[in-house]
From TrEMBL:
Residues 1-167 form the FAD-binding PCMH-type domain. This is Xanthine dehydrogenase family protein subunit M. Pfam families: FAD_binding_5. InterPro entries: CO_DH_flav_C, CO_DH_flav_C_dom_sf, Diverse_Substr_Oxidored, FAD-bd_PCMH, FAD-bd_PCMH-like_sf, FAD-bd_PCMH_sub1, FAD-bd_PCMH_sub2, Mopterin_DH_FAD-bd. It comes from the Bacteria. Gene3D superfamilies: 3.30.465.10, CO dehydrogenase flavoprotein, C-terminal domain, Uridine Diphospho-n-acetylenolpyruvylglucosamine Reductase, domain 2. It comes from Mesobacterium hydrothermale. Keywords: FAD, Flavoprotein, Oxidoreductase.
Length: 262
């Protein structure tokens, strides 16, 4: 580790002002950033902690929409979203271990956009809206590749708004040491149609499996995707699994998610 300054503002306005410094970085749960600092993969001169900003925390429901403050930790989402959006609550309850779930936040997860993280699949699969201090960004426009998002420098995620679907489920084949998704699929059925988002598999990060969506719109059953397949080209290939293996798992996890949702 190395020396740096840390600020802990109590308001969003103060956090935005602190992040105007080009050498500053936002710190939410720190589950990715702190290990990066230890390995010298990042070296900001100042960290701006968002954990003391009350307006960035909490879970509320209104008119079929679930809104989660960006600084809300995974354990709180698991507990407070259970009666509103069970699939999302179940996803939050399987992120990492209890220590991670009590520190990590939904805003930190989607701002980092790790290609194997669970929340990006839920946000994209639900057709959620990412709210920042400057604007609102549709999920389809927000995720822009591995570790890349539509956020501008100094822009802060303040909340995520989820339309609550008729049916939904998330299934992941996890890497047992990290509990990240080797492949995870979030499926949601709404009046507008079915969305299926895949995490952990592609070199481009989270993506929608549109062919499966079309098949599931015709029949929301696991068997609807039997005739589909995804090529291994462009899939992550590492010591945990080849690209072809991950491509196979996408179909398996999709069928399991549909079965669980149905």
């Amino acid at each position: 580790m190395y020396s740096f300054e840390i600020e802990r503002p109590g308001t969003l306005a103060d956090a935005v002002a602190a992040l105007a410094d080009d050498e500053a970085m936002a710190l939410s749960g720190g589950q990715t950033l702190i290990p990066s600092l230890k390995q010298r993969l990042a070296s900001p001169s100042k960290l701006v902690s968002l954990t003391a900003i009350a307006e960035l925390k909490g879970v509320c429901s209104d008119g079929g929409t679930l809104t989660i403050g960006a600084a809300t930790n995974h354990a709180t989402v698991e507990r407070e979203a259970a009666g509103i959006y069970p699939a999302l609550a179940a996803l939050a309850g399987k992120i990492g271990d209890p220590a991670v779930r009590n520190r990590g936040t939904i805003g930190g997860s989607i701002a980092n956009n790790d290609p194997s993280a669970c929340y990006p699949a839920a946000v994209l699969g639900s057709g959620a809206t990412v709210v920042t201090n400057l604007r609102e960004i549709a999920a389809d426009d927000y995720f822009q590749g591995m570790f890349a998002t539509a956020l501008d420098e100094g822009e802060i995620v303040t909340a995520v708004r989820f339309p609550v679907p008729e049916k939904a489920a998330y299934m992941k084949f996890e890497q047992p040491a990290s509990r990240f998704a080797l492949v995870g699929v979030f499926v949601a059925k709404t009046a507008e149609g079915v969305r299926a988002a895949v995490t952990g598999a592609s070199e481009e990060g989270v993506f929608r499996w549109t062919e499966a969506e079309e098949a599931l719109n015709g029949s929301f059953t696991p068997e609807a995707v039997d005739g589909l397949s995804i090529p291994g080209d462009g899939m992550i290939s590492d010591l945990h699994g080849s690209g072809a293996y991950r491509a196979h798992l996408i179909k398996v996890m999709t069928k399991r998610a549909v079965a669980a949702a149905g």
